[in-house]
Structures are given as structure tokens and as C-alpha cells.
Amino acid sequence: MKKVSCIDLPGHFNFRARLHESVETAQAIILVLDSKDRNKIPEAAEILYDILNNITVLDRKVPILVVCNKQDLQFAKRATQLELEVERDIEEIRKVRRATIDDQDTAKEQVSKQGYLEQLRKKFTFSDATLKRDLPPITFAEASVQREEIEAVLKFINDQFWKLRGFGVLG
Questions:
Q1: Among positive and negative, which fits the CA dihedral 29, 34, 37, 38?
Q2: Which residue in 142, 1, 155, 158 sits closest to 76, CA to CA?
Q3: Angle (CA) 113 65 26, round 5°
Q4: What angle (nearest 5°) sits at the alpha carbon of residue 42, between those of residues 40 and 46?
Q5: Does pLDDT of 170 surpass 90?
Q6: CB-based burial of residue 2 (10 Å sphere; 0-12 exposed, 13-18 middle, 19+ buried)?
Q7: How far apart are CA 60 and CA 27, in angstroms?
Q8: How many CB atoms are located within 10 Å of the residue 82 CB?
Q9: Helix-strand-coil percent breakdown of the chain, rounded to 5?
Q10: Helices (H), 27-115
């Protein structure tokens, strides 16, 4: 019987090194986003940006679920809205990091320091067909842990469990 391990890491900057170590061996990634707290969206975008620049995640096409939690709260943003905001923030991060590399390094040094997202010659969008081919599958879903409305999370875990076992996804 295969063992499935789950690692729960807070998004705080102090835990980023541990996050980067963990994604190296991850079979699936679940990123939980507070749908009500606008101030947390850029932090979530930066975490997702770093995950998407990880060569192991890219090579192995590690599936990613972004869970938009706290849907039970009034004025919580829907998954589609949060997806657009995260997408916008990732594009801003990409521009800043690319400009920083361009300003500091020679052309040869720039290539070695650029991750996948910095090398893009066009705007980052989750819907871009080329990016969908190159990036791992990324899904945004709504949930309310408080109300135990976590069907999308359970389905994602179940799907990944069966893929790990060498079976297709159960319908």
C-alpha cells in the first residue's frame, strides 16, 4: 500500500524555504486562499508564481488546486474573480522580476537567472493555450471549510490519489 503524506504550510514569508523544499516531491499542490481578505491575494499570487517557476513542478506537471475558501462569508470573492486577480498579480510580479534581472545582469547572466515565467514574451494568463500546455494543470475552486463545503478539495485529492495508484480518475 502506498503512503500519502500531506504537508500543511502557512503562506507566511518565513515558511517559503520549507514550501520550496516541499514542492520538489509533491504529487499535487493545494493552495488555500482567503476569499474575503484582499490583502492576502498578492501573497498567494507570489507563492503560486514561485511554484510555477519551479522546474520540478513544471517538468512533472504537478496539478495545482487553488481553493478559494470562506465562501460562506458575506462579500467573499468568487473563484472566477480571484483567478483574474491572481493572474493580474502574477503578471505584475513577472514584470518586476524581469525588469530587476534586466537592470542588474548581462544578457548571459539574465538567461541563467530567469525562471519560466520571466522568459515569457507575452502577458501571463491562465487561459493562454501555450501556457496551458507548458504549465501544470491549475484549477480554482470555491470552498467553505467552516460549513464543511469542501467537495472540490475532496474530489481533487481523490483524483490525485487514483493517479498515484496508476488508475485513471474515478468519475
A1: positive
A2: 142
A3: 60
A4: 115
A5: no
A6: exposed
A7: 9
A8: 22
A9: 50, 10, 35
A10: 41-52, 55-60, 79-104, 107-113
Distance CA(103)–CA(106), nearest Å, equals 8
Are residues 26 and 59 in contact, defined by beta-carbon separation less than 8 angstroms? no
Which region among 26-35, 77-86, 100-109 has the lowest average model confidence (pLDDT)? Answer: 100-109
- The yes-or-no verdict on residue 78 having pLDDT over 80 is yes
**Which strands, in side-by-side order, build the sheet including 64-69?**
29-34, 64-69, 138-142
| The pLDDT of residue 21 is above 60 | yes
Cα end-to-end distance, the chain, whole Å: 22
Average pLDDT over all residues of the chain:
85
Q: Are 159 and 169 in contact (CB under 8 A)?
A: yes
